[in-house]
Amino acid sequence: MNKIVLDANVLYSNILRGLFLWLSWGSLIQISWSDEIWDEVFRNYSDDDEAKQKFRQNIEGGVFKQFSASRKTLAGGYTLVGLPDKDDEHVVALARQQNCSTIVTLNLKDFPDALLSPVGISVCSPDLFLCDLFLSVPDEVKDGVLQHMKAQTKMKPKKAFYLEKLKNAKATKFASILETEDAAGNLFPEVWP
Predict the structure, then answer these.
(1) pTM for the whole thing?
(2) CATH of the domain at 30
(3) Do residues 34 and 72 touch, judged by C-beta distance below 8 A?
(4) What is the C-alpha separation between 83 and 110, in angstroms, rounded?
(5) For 5-15, how does the pLDDT look when each residue is reduced to its tens digit (9 = 90+)?
(6) End-to-end Cα spacing for the chain
């Protein structure tokens, strides 16, 4: 099982956060995050304090309760690896403390391989991570996508809309893989007629 840390920019995206959570629910991956990572998500969510507070309440009442095992306490006094942005060091520290092999982030430049490789951590975009996971366990990933779509009872997205949302979240190659699977009749029927 892949043990990963999701960076704040991945957790910020509704579609990416939801999909990664469903994949972890299906035991394909094990996610770790810290309060420090979520503080960054909450800080950057919106300039509207009311919207920010509502989002925080939804996350704390849903995600934190359902995925409580993913919430890890970051131990202080960690060793810095020399990242370009010192404010990202806590993400690497969490990965090291939780023995995670990969940090999934949209900010690859902030986590240089030359600094992470010596400590046994790789960095990967959500798109590449999802593509690689699909190559290794395609049926399980398709089921995770299906379950994620079924859980969206308010929005009730069609497949095309869901795949467009993935593309907008910079998971373009993964969305293309799913489109190809769908065109070949290998995905699943529409969840919401």
Answers:
(1) 0.94
(2) 3.40.50.1010
(3) yes
(4) 7
(5) 999 999 999 99
(6) 34
